[in-house]
Write a structure and sequence with these properties.
heterodimer; A: about 110 residues; mainly beta; 6-stranded mixed β-sheet; 4-stranded antiparallel β-sheet; 10 strands; B: about 120 residues
Chain lengths: ~110, ~120
């Protein structure tokens, strides 16, 4: 596709369950980012992948959060033992070179009940 | 540490008046700077960027921004605001060089500024 694709668009889960969020970046983009946006709030950086380098995980809020990027393309963000405070919109973005803008997906709205 | 500050949570402007949304940043070395806009229930859209060269950059929808290295600022401006400009605006910074990443470091966003343009 032409843009960044995220799935699912909406996810409702019970507290304590694990969830997986998927991101398909724009083909050829070497950089991939995950962010979290709570209602009406800013973008909280979670994790950054760049090529074959080790990811920058400095934004992950706890060890319940993890992410992978397979083959330098698709990425999965996993949240284990979800809590109500994990409810937010999770945004994925990708960019080509360091001096180019990042393109965002439409996000996954996660609701933990 | 890399950071972005948007000191105003909200900016109110009358239609037709000039608008400014403020942004200051902190990063090691030379910055790459970006502005994004988010309309209600929609994704983030890129507006403009500063990479190098002319300090005044022009972007989409008549917006422009001025890079000021001495003040570490990158304020967003528009000469004449429209009601349709009402949205949430985000400033972002990326280090041009970062340890371990030859393509630059992570992209960090400010907390956003809600722009309200009234008729």
């Amino acid at each position: 596709g032409a843009g960044v694709s995220q799935s699912p668009s909406n996810k409702v889960t019970e507290k304590g369950k694990d969830v997986e969020l998927r991101c398909d970046p724009i083909s050829g983009h070497t950089a991939l980012y995950w962010y979290r946006q709570s209602l009406g709030q800013g973008l909280e950086f979670l994790i950054y992948f760049q090529g074959n380098s080790a990811p920058d995980k400095s934004g992950l809020p706890s060890d319940r959060f993890s992410a992978e990027r397979t083959g330098g393309s698709v990425s999965t963000l996993t949240i284990q033992r979800t809590q109500q405070e994990d409810s937010a919109v999770y945004l994925c973005a990708s960019s080509h070179y360091k001096n180019t803008e990042a393109f965002f997906g439409q996000g996954t709205r996660l609701t933990v009940v | 540490a890399q950071s972005v500050a948007q000191p105003e949570d909200q900016v109110n402007v009358a239609e037709g008046n000039p608008l400014t949304v403020k942004c200051t940043y902190s990063v090691s070395g030379n910055p790459y700077l970006f502005w994004y806009v988010q309309y209600p229930n929609r994704g983030l859209q890129f507006l403009l960027k500063y990479i190098t060269g002319d300090n005044l950059v022009k972007g989409s929808y008549g917006f422009e921004a001025e890079f000021n290295k001495s003040q570490t600022s990158f304020h967003l401006k528009k000469p004449s605001a429209l009601v349709s400009d009402s949205a949430l605006y985000f400033c972002a910074v990326r280090a041009s060089k970062a340890p371990l990443y030859n393509q630059g470091g992570k992209l960090i966003f400010g907390q956003g500024t809600e722009l309200s343009v009234k008729p």
